[in-house]
Specification:
By secondary structure, the chain is mostly helical. The protein has three helices and two strands, in the order βααβα. The protein is globular, with a radius of gyration of 11 Å. The two termini are about 20 Å apart.
């Protein structure tokens, strides 16, 4: 989703839609995203975000 904030989420997310296209980064998998230091979006990926927040990974 965002290279600056290191947050990933769905392309349909209202937060993601606000990002400039040049700031968007795409990964092949959720695992690759996490390995690159990104965290799940708290809006469109609530369940994954809660797991991340509680210290659990994929």
């Amino acid at each position: 989703m965002s290279a600056d904030l290191k947050i990933y989420g769905a392309l349909s997310c209202r937060s993601g839609k606000k990002l400039k296209k040049e700031n968007r980064v795409f990964f092949i998998s959720e695992t690759e995203t996490m390995q690159n230091g990104y965290r799940p979006c708290g809006h469109c990926m609530k369940e994954q975000y809660q797991r991340w927040k509680n210290g659990f990974t994929i």
